[in-house]
Design a protein that fits this description.
Elements: E1 2-6, H1 10-20, E2 26-31, H2 35-43, E3 51-53, H3 56-62, E4 68-71, H4 78-87, E5 91-95, H5 102-115, E6 119-122, H6 129-140, E7 146-155, H7 170-173, H8 184-188, H9 190-201, E8 204-212, E9 220-221, E10 224-225, E11 231-238, E12 243-249, E13 257-265, E14 268-274, E15 283-288, H10 291-294, E16 298-301, H11 308-318, H12 326-345, E17 349-350
Parallel strand pairs: 1-2, 1-4, 2-3, 4-5, 5-6, 7-12
Antiparallel strand pairs: 7-13, 8-11, 8-17, 9-10, 11-12, 13-14, 14-15, 15-16
Length: about 350
């Protein structure tokens, strides 16, 4: 199977590694308009036999018969590059968020449907086997209907130097600037936690969001105006009657990359807490039956589940588009847009209006 990669920034290395470790799958070509990034990617000891191009158009013209193309470009280029790929009839695996806004995401969904291609969005945390089990339990009705939800995504790169000094590196600074295509923490990691909650519990009906930017960290560094949100709180009402809170922060001291989801239902509760090192990705906590009155939780170790990369390949082979697809990506983008509207208007927003 022949795979191409568009964009050779930081995340592209992960895509190369994951696809290259699937049997009979080869990354054969990459492209990037940034020549330095392209050269750096191609100079890696494992990437020497890959053909490199300085534009997507050139790669699509000179390379034939891709089975799939992975889109790892910055957020603001997702729409235009994906539409080019779909126009050629190739299957697309796109980094999150699907687009910068719902209108663009909707156009991508429509283009994917017209081309009848496999399309997926890389919501990474779907890969947790504990999360997959949590979703299965909730949807089975085993613990009743959802009543209350708490979902948090915690990072601390604005409060620590775990990944380097953010004030000195473009790969962090652009995430703080709306002029550079960032929707802040909401658009970067908020898409993950909303997908996490919605996929497990059901669609959100209404939302009230409060976005926060901390200007005491500085207002401008180099050509980056630091005006994107650093975190948010949101109150949500689900279509099925459940209520909850969904929150996100880049100042969560002590948390490298933590996702916590707790869903309390009419006959029990389930929770997962994912961590940076993935040591808890198979650990599900459940409280049901006799344990409800004991106030105790059973710990279930869940067998490993396929990665999004493996599911993309499987989708191509089986011609059965697995989740999360572009429609899910667009649904999450609509929630993100509604959060911005809610914050600006200081009001509840009906997601469907």
């Amino acid at each position: 199977m022949k795979i191409g990669i568009v964009g050779t920034g930081n995340i592209s290395s992960r895509h190369f590694f994951e696809f290259s470790n699937i049997d009979q799958v080869n990354v054969e070509a990459v492209c990037d308009t940034n020549e330095d990034n392209l050269k750096k990617f191609l100079s890696d000891k494992n990437n020497k036999n890959i053909r490199g191009y300085l534009s997507l158009g050139e790669m699509l013209e000179k390379e034939k018969n891709f089975d799939g193309i992975s889109n790892t470009t910055p957020d603001k280029f997702h729409k235009e590059t994906t539409l080019q790929i779909l126009d050629k009839g190739y299957n697309v695996f796109c980094e999150k968020p699907l687009a910068e806004n719902y209108e663009d995401a909707k156009k991508m969904v429509e283009a994917a449907k017209r081309s009848k291609t496999v399309n997926m969005v890389n919501f990474t945390y779907r890969e947790s086997s504990a999360y997959q089990k949590l979703v299965q339990i909730i949807k089975s009705g085993e613990i009743g209907v959802p009543r209350h939800v708490s979902a948090c995504y915690y990072q601390s790169w604005l409060a620590s130097n775990k990944w380097g000094e953010w004030r000195e590196e473009d790969k962090w600074l652009w995430r703080l600037s709306t002029q550079h295509g960032s929707n802040g923490a909401l658009g970067d990691t908020g898409v993950h936690i909303f997908d996490f909650a919605v996929n497990a519990v059901g669609d959100i009906k209404e939302i009230f969001a409060d976005l926060k930017t901390y200007y005491d960290k500085g207002k401008k560094i180099k050509n980056y105006i630091l005006d994107a949100n650093d975190g948010f709180n949101s109150l949500v009402r689900f279509e099925n009657g459940a209520i909850g809170t969904i929150t996100n922060s880049r100042f969560a001291t002590g948390h490298a990359n933590s996702l916590i989801l707790e869903v309390f239902c009419s006959k029990g509760g389930v929770k997962v807490e994912l961590d940076e090192e993935r040591t808890k990705w198979s650990t599900l906590h459940i409280c049901q039956k006799e344990k409800i009155n004991e106030m105790s939780w059973e710990i279930i170790k869940c067998p490993k589940t396929p990665s999004n990369y493996q599911n993309f390949v499987k989708s191509i082979q089986s011609k059965n588009n697995l989740q999360p697809d572009f429609s899910q990506g667009a649904k999450i983008q609509k929630i993100i847009d509604s959060c911005i509207k809610s914050n600006d208007n200081n009001s509840w927003i009906d997601i469907n209006n």
